[in-house]
Amino acid sequence: MDNAVPLLDRDAEGADPRQRRELQGARLRDLIDRLLGAGGLQAARLRDAGVERGGDVTLDDLHRLPMVTKADLWAHYPHGLRAVDAEEIVCVHGSSGTGGRPTLIPYTAHDLDVWAQVMARALAGAGATRSSVIHNAYGYGLFTGGLGVHHGGIRLGATVLPLSGGMTDRQVRMIADLRPDILTCTPSYAIFLGEALRTAGVATDLRAGVFGAEPWTDEMRTQIQSLLGLRALDIYGLSEIIGPGVACESLDSDGMLNVAEDHFYVETVDAQGNPVPDGTPGELVFTTLTKTGMPLLRYRTGDVASLAGPVAGSPRTLRRMSKLLGRTDDMLVVRGVNVFPTEIEAVLLADVRVSPHYLIVDDRRVAARPELRVAVEPFESTVDNDRLGTELTGALRERLGISCVVSVLGPGSVPRTEVGKARRLARWTEGEPPLAGLG
Ligand code: DLL
Q1: Which Pfam families match (predicted)?
Q2: Confidence (pLDDT) at 191
């Protein structure tokens, strides 16, 4: 493989899959003993399922064990399903979450150590080394993006620039002055920053970007790569499991994300919770094999992706997951057709006239007549807007089987995301449109 990158942690990333499975089995049994010892919700559910000790269980039985959901975490707010004494906790992270309900996650020093390890691997897989300068524009705070990259970059021995989100003028200045080779931020901020760099006429030494925390497609990747002149890689994670680093693309992983499955065992299930085979999209379910502060057995993420084995012949033997298709709660049902916003993004951005600034609006003002609206902006003001609208409507109907109302708006009409996660889907149930110029 000509694009192979050396493994940072050969024992973990390059292990013989059979040996890794043995390790996962042993860690699962230890986890179950810890959960039973801690008492509480997960212990009670295990006992109800007839599990009295870790030795009762093998990895093959895992799919029969009880799951936990976000609702369980909310029900135990603010301390969550903490499994150790308060004095073992060294920090708390979390997310504002869907529906604005926060989820808080307690970490032990051991959890931070695992997080730094998996994040160091993720950065190394993107080609970062001890001599790298990592421009980290993920938000620092309760959100796991900023500090997750920070811990991993320091573990790797690179130089981390802790920019956090926003104050783009200063970010442009730092990139011009300190010449980072690695950029870490959300894909939407990569575009915002890329456009600011272009406007300022700053050429960069950026080689790779590690972008995640929100859905983005291969079509978006193409746009980011041409804007910033770097390799754009995807990183996935969620605070409940550890934060970024649960899975990350590497330069040699063929467009999929290597799952850090020695720490986070992954399954995919259907809506009824039954396992789905590799290659079939399903909801990701993770078991935190080594976590101690708030270990989770079979956490249902609500995120949809498919799984696959490693790239054939690669020294990297971890299982891989696809880019996320979306979240189960973001799936749109349009006149009986199920569609994820990412599928719409893929059609829109496959058209070279369309800029990455778009908004999907689920118009439910008339319950009996739901309408899907899509607002896009062309790159060039010379584009024939009527023709573009008609052609995009046709492409969406042909490729996804859905009819949408496409509005082609003037440059700058769709809100940009400078801080936090991009909001590319809006619900419209009454009153004014979520975006001027729609409807
Ligand atoms: O977003 C952790 C993270 C930070 C991941 C930085 C990558 C980079 P939460 O705020 O808890 O944690 O949100 C987790 O974000 O369940 C997914 O729905 C979504 N998400 C995270 N990464 C991706 C990705 C962080 N690469 C939720 N693609 C998850 C699509 C993603 N969605």
Answers
A1: AMP-binding (PF00501), AMP-binding_C_2 (PF14535)
A2: 97
